[in-house]
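Take a look at the protein record below with the fold in mind.
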Amino acid sequence: MASFLNAEQQALAHEIGSLLSGRGETIAVAEATAGGLISAALLSVPGASRYYAGGAVVYTRNSRIMLAGVAPEELVSYRGSTAEMIVALADSMRQRLGATWCLAESGVAGPTGSRPGRTVVGIAGPVSRSEAIETGLVEREANMMEFTTRSLRALRGALREAGPQPQR
């Protein structure tokens, strides 16, 4: 297993991969402050091509428009990530890639910014939800790792909530 992941991230990625593969479902990822670590975790599992539909690091306004298909007018008065905006981002990317699910996240990794150590995670799919994550940390790399872990936990929770689905 890749050394850039901690033991919990490895376990979460394997469980998520198993749940998705077992149901014949797919996942897309639109991440910002996790910097690609969520996708890297999901892709570290052998057989990820069965469930990983694709993803992008949508760190800028332009990348959200061009890669995730967010309408420019939705970002006109952007002042930070909201739950509604992140779920809309997740749904746009899910549709764009034809995935069953999408996990999206965006916030402030730090050490500067209005609220370092805060991100919003949104999931779109058979179960849609969002949650704000506050780490209490200002160190950028530590926040990125924590955002990854907690985003994977949120995805696992949504998959479990959706219950077993027949394979397609």
The radius of gyration is 15 Å.
